[in-house]
Amino acid sequence: MIPKLIVFGGNGFLGKRICQEAVTAGYQVVSVSRSGKAPQSNELNDKQWMREVQWAAADIFKPDSYHELLKDASNVVHSLGILLENENYKQTLSKTPTNDSKSYLLSFGAGPNPLKKSSPYFTYEMMNKQSAIILADTFKQEILKKSKKEQTKANERSFTYISADKGFPMIPSGYINSKREAEIELEKMQKYFRPVIMRPGFMFDERRNAIGPRSFIHTALELLYCGNKFLLQNKLQFMNDLIRPTVSTQQVSKSVLTKIKNPDFKGVVTLEEILKT
Ligand SMILES: NC(=O)c1ccc[n+]([C@@H]2O[C@H](COP(=O)([O-])OP(=O)(O)OC[C@H]3O[C@@H](n4cnc5c(N)ncnc54)[C@H](OP(=O)(O)O)[C@@H]3O)[C@@H](O)[C@H]2O)c1
Question: Could you report the per-residue pLDDT of 213-240, keeping only the tens digit for each?
Answer without folding.
Answer: 778 788 888 888 787 777 777 777 777 7
